[in-house]
Amino acid sequence: MTLPRPVCVAIQGAHGAYSEEALDRLLVCPFKIETAKSFPEMFSAVARHEAHACLAPMENSLVGSIFQNYDLLLRYGYRVRGEVYLRVRHCLIAPVGTYFDDIERVYSHPLAIDQCQEFFRRHPRIEAIATYDTAGSVKMLITERMTGAAAIAGAGAAAHYGGKVVRSDIEDDPANYTRFFLLSLGDAQLGELVEQFSREAVGPPKTSIVFHIDNAPGSLCSTLEPFAQRGIDLTRIESRPVRGKPFDYLFYLDFLGTTATSEARDALAELKTAAGFTRVLGTYPSGRLDWVGAVDHPGFLEAG
Question: Which of 35, 98, 178, 283 is the catalytic position?
């Protein structure tokens, strides 16, 4: 199957969202964007063949995993085709002609507001108002010509909608990164996308799996032992409750390498024997994390 040009990728949020910035970093092939107001709507767009793939934020370095998207990934059975890490740099964006002292209200997604609590502490006169999206908040205040208002979003949203960046880097912690998965349906669709990832944004192959084991002493340790015995580098493991089974858990695990090696095949075979449920979510080029510390954060020591 040959994918049409441009490739259509669904994202949650309006144009100019962080997801669009992450997609620019990940893909070098031409693409167009299908916007969605919610994560379920974004996943559904791929199932309805309105998009070839979706780019889903899966984990943030400050707030942890975005569990809704892990649940949706399992529900829809999509394959992971790639990952990208994006440093999230929150900006205070207002309509042209609005100055900082004019701002009384700030709109943004709840997670973005939560990541800028120090800014609101220093400026208690400013009210934080939650909306469905960061870039969508910028679009709203620009199109509705709102006065005394600003939004928290990325600089790309300001450029897209003609807003003005009033303050940059207002997040509490400069080490603020979001990990995204590029997800799609069958293998035939994904092959071409994998080959067209940006060479600057990818690293060695990584594999993600999910499995379920009975709750018994030592069960998790014995399940992971085949990976350790074969020198397979586990980069992440996290539990997630099983719906309808209180205090029963699925485990999501990432390891460096592919399922094609004899070591990985043997380790997975032992895992499948011990586990009641196992699914390989995908093997894909790993993203590159360019870590930035506090000393590189121009607004980190800003007094207000």
Answer: 178
**What span, in angstroms and rounded, lies between the C-alpha atoms of 184 and 54?**
7
8 A C-beta contact, residue 35 and residue 136: no
Q: Of residues 180, 181, 197, 211, which has the active-site annotation?
A: 180
Tens of pLDDT, residue by residue over 249-277, are 999 999 999 999 999 999 999 999 988 89
Domains of the chain: 1-87+176-198 (3.40.190.10), 91-174 (3.40.190.10), 201-291 (3.30.70.260)
Buried b (16+ CB within 10 A) or exposed e, 118-128: bbbeeeeebeb
Mean pLDDT of 285-292: 80
**Exposure of 244 in the CB half-sphere (CA atoms within 13 A):** 0
Local confidence band at 298 (pLDDT 50, 70, 90 cut-offs)? very low
